[in-house]
Structures are given as structure tokens and as C-alpha cells.
Amino acid sequence: MKTALFVVGSFRAKSFNRQLAREAEALLAPRAKVEWLDFRAVPFMDQDAENPAPKAVAKAREAVLAADGVWFFTPEYNFSYPGLLKNLLDWLSRPRDPSDRTSPSVLAGKKCTVSGVGGRNATADCRRKLADLLAFVGMKQLRDREVGLALAPSSWTTDDLALDEAGRAALAEQASAFADFLES
Question: ω into residue 52 within 30 of 0, thus cis?
């Protein structure tokens, strides 16, 4: 069974994207093992502290290496992805061998997909910009099945993700396509 690493671009306890990831985990469970990356301890990127890598960075790199693919769940902040996600990707994109600046990163060639839930824009700008960044760092993206969802108005007052049938169906299609992608 393949392993999917889930990366949520929000640390908020009741994050809508964390809730979306839980929905995706249930859909993916029959076909892939899901691991969650907790990267709260990853410090701000600092080349002066890069070698040796901080323990939290080394742990994140090991999790990415061990996974067959990465599924990003992210909100949109000011028409882009959150800074905490960018910081993580900055650390992960560094060469695996610090003595060889041309060695690949843990992200190079890794399969990935992106989902996001947010306001009326349904994270479109975030997903577009994140796709550019993921291509730049060499990840293989499942682009034709990305899911971007607009929150139901009730979610903003209850803090509960309320997926409609269309949203559930889109997420189920993405989960199936991602499982196929991991197995290919």
C-alpha cells in the first residue's frame, strides 16, 4: 500500500482545510496509508542555521522521503498560499546533500496534489501560485483533479466544514485519481 503525506497549510485547530484533509483521508484510506506532517516546529528559513539542518527540518525531510506522494490542503491568504507553507517548502527544496549544491531535494520528482477550501474564490489564486512553486521545486503534480471549494455561508459562523454533494464528489474523484497517481 502506498503512503500519502498530508500537509495542511494552516495551524488553526479548527482549520477548514484540516477538516477537508480528514474527509480526504477517509476517502483515500482503502487505497493508501495516510501520514500527517506536523511542521509547527520548523523554524524560519535561515541559511546560517541550514547545516546541520534543524531537527524539525530533518524530521520533515524524512517524512517526505518516506512518502510516495504529498497532498497539500491549503487556505488562500491574500491571493496566495500561507507563509508557513512557503517556509516549509523553502526548507524542503534545499539540496539533500549540503556539500553538493546540485544534489536533488526531497521534493524533486515527488508526486503531489493540491486541495483548498476558502471564500468565494475557492482558493483559485493560491492553487495557481502554489502549482508554479511546486513545478519550480520539481514535484510531479496531479493537475487535472485539483479541488478548490468555496465554504458554505454557515461554515463561517459554525467553524464546521459543510461540504455539499458536489464538493464531496469532487474530493472523492481527486482521492481516487491521487491513489491511481501514487500507484502509477
Answer: yes
